[in-house]
Amino acid sequence: MRNTLLPYGRQSIGEDDIQSVVDVLRSDWLTTGPKVGEFEEAFAAWVGAKYAVSFSSGTAALHGAVFAAGLKPGDEAITSPLTFAATANCVLYQGATPVFADVSADTLNLDPEKVAARITPRTRAVLPVDYAGHPADLDAILELAARHGMVVIEDACHALGAEYRGRRTGSIADMTVFSFHPVKHLATGEGGMVTTDRADCAEALRRFRNHGISSDARQRQTDGQWRYEMVLLGFNYRLTDIACALGLSQLKKLDANLSRRRQIAARYAAAFRDLAGVMPPAVRPDVNPAWHLYPIRLNLEELSADRAQVFRALRAENIGVNVHYIPVHRHPYYRDRFGYRGGEYPIAEDAYERLISLPMFHGMTDEDVGDVVRAVCKVIGHYAR
Ligand SMILES: *Cc1c(COP(=O)(O)O)cnc(C)c1O
User: Fold this and answer.
1) Is the pTM of this model over 0.85?
2) What confidence score (pLDDT) does residue 220 get?
3) How many angstroms separate the alpha carbon of residue 102 from the centre of ligand 1?
4) In this structure, which of 7, 47, 114, 155 has its CB flanked by the most CB atoms within 10 Å?
């Protein structure tokens, strides 16, 4: 057994990352300086989008995207119940109503048929989530959106670097949102990004993250101007030059980090193939997932234990397992505000009872992966019927 806890996710920071932050600390700009634009341009180029607009977190980026989509009170937006609460919360921030649709049993991503059934004349947007890093069923969702005049905001916070039918996430939906939280593929501490090909969205996003002001401080300093105009009600959601310098440095290693995550996923898949008690995550043939998480589902029918017991047993082996996610509509805030009682989204709710996220991060060593495989085989073997 390991003698230290292996977390389910963590950042990797090298001397090159540290040096890039030190350099910016010695420079003239700690925020709203040259690193912001450099990071945004490099990121847009990497995913294959025309524009990238940085934000102070993935949640702020989601808020910006919902604003840029024009959502307002009375409007509805459809999303997955099996996500981090921020995906639905951002709809509430703009006074609109999040509506959930159940997920597909294989990928646990939004099921386009269930989405279609929830569309009303008030539906203005759909927010597919690329659960665990496996892209959502984007073509089917985009087709529905085109037919019903909905904006597609893809929550790709799990899926930086994932490929869907040969294209990278970030270049497909109207707007795509990423997070740079330390457990994600690229870490800036806190941080987020929206990518888009739409100039109108990029403009709205830039204003929204800067108080609704139509030019930035550096632009004014360069132009020798004092005048600025606040044209809409925005926020201070800017990402600092310190964070953007770190982001630029991390971006250089993204390809290598993605290959490492894919190697780890392949090792897990091979190790668990014949383990009747667990179901490894499904991969559809038209995608290449980015593997933010590695969520296995327990075949409870084959086990004499429930998820909580398996979870505790893995923790006792010093494997830092986690659960993603408690379905959003089961949280007290959503229950109380919208009257959910449970049972509304049976596929997501059944998955929740079985899910355990195994450690998955690019800094894992081969020994770490071996420790996880051994612990899972031991615990599942122990509880096998
Ligand atoms: C991480 C995450 C977010 C929010 O990102 P923060 O940067 O932590 O605000 C939103 N949605 C999903 C699915 C996430 O995993």
Assistant:
1) yes
2) 74
3) 20
4) 155
